[in-house]
Amino acid sequence: MKMDIIRWLKSGFIRLRRMPRTRGFGVQSPSAYRFLRDVISSRGRYAVAEGLLEGGSTGGKERLKLLNFYARVAGFTQAKRWFVSERLASDGLKAYVCAGCQAAEVSSVLDDSGVYVVDAADVQLVNEILTRASASSLLIIEGIHRSAGTLRKWRQVVADRRTGVCFDMYEAGVAGFDLKKFKTSYQVNL
Question: How far apart are the C-alpha atoms of 103 and 159, rounded to whole Å?
Answer without folding.
Answer: 33
